[in-house]
Design brief:
The protein is 10% helix and 38% strand. The protein has 263 residues and is mainly beta. Helix 2 runs antiparallel to helix 3.
Length: 263
């Protein structure tokens, strides 16, 4: 079991309840990363399902959970021949923190009938760069859990030179050697700095709603994460992410709505 597997594990209490322990190592200046929290919920929902994989998960972030004990409460809705549907709620100290719906199915790795090309051609890894190591007092614990190499124009905001477009692109893998799986993909879609940084905003940008589609089981190796937004307006922005595995295959898609960074 890797550190990430342990940080997202769900222990069955009964048919509908799973104990979890939210790991402070996935904090971003205090709050826990939304993709990490989604992975915790997805793992519990998959364990409670007769099918293997969480193929679509939609979560509404009612509150910001804190590190420590919590529970995932599963409410089965329907079990069909090829998919099962359930509600999954992350509860902490008796209060619902994240409400989500999860559809599970079993993916078999079939060859795609049609596959669109990536919307953007990434430069080679040698031409990409990491972010500077955060200062210990920043509370950016998440950075230590992963290796991320960015397409340089998408982190121009670090030098006060944002591109003016909501965008972020990078190569991604876990810091501890681990083949990517559906739960690593959940972290990957929300692991890059908010795309609104490239549009000139800064500060914590809390996610309100995040939906993840698992499209295929990823091959071993680096992932490529391509993120962009369509509208920044009235204190809100959207962010779409596309994740491709080391073979170039599309393995995950996500979309989220978030508040523009504050502070």
């Amino acid at each position: 079991m890797t550190k990430f597997d342990e940080a997202t594990q769900a222990i069955r209490v009964d048919d509908n309840t799973y104990d979890v322990c939210l790991d402070p190592g996935y904090g971003i200046g205090g709050p826990l990363n939304g993709g990490y929290l989604l992975a915790v919920i997805m793992r519990a929902a998959a364990q409670a399902s007769p099918f293997d994989h969480p193929v679509t998960t939609s979560a509404q972030f009612l509150k910001a959970p804190v590190p420590g004990p919590a529970q995932i409460v599963i409410e089965p809705l329907k079990v069909g021949r090829t998919a099962a549907f359930a509600r999954a709620t992350l509860v902490q100290d008796g209060v619902a923190q994240i409400a989500s719906s999860v559809t599970t199915a079993t993916l078999h790795g079939a060859e795609p009938v049609y596959a669109a090309e990536a919307p953007f051609a990434m430069p080679g890894m040698d031409d990409c760069v990491p972010l500077p190591h955060p200062k210990p007092e920043s509370g950016m614990m998440l950075n230590a859990q992963m290796e991320v190499l960015f397409d340089p124009p998408t982190i121009g905001w670090l030098k006060g030179e944002p591109s003016g477009r909501p965008e972020s692109r990078a190569y991604f893998r876990m810091a501890e050697p681990q083949d990517p799986d559906p739960y690593v993909l959940a972290l990957a879609v929300d692991a890059l700095p908010p795309v609104v940084f490239s549009a000139g905003a800064r500060g914590w940008a809390p996610t309100v709603d995040l939906t993840l589609h698992l499209r295929a089981l990823p091959a071993p190796g680096w992932l490529t994460v391509l993120c962009g937004g369509r509208l920044v307006s009235d204190g809100w922005f959207d962010e779409e992410a596309e994740v491709r595995d080391s073979t170039g295959r599309l393995v995950a898609q996500s979309r989220q709505l978030a508040r523009v960074g504050r502070g």
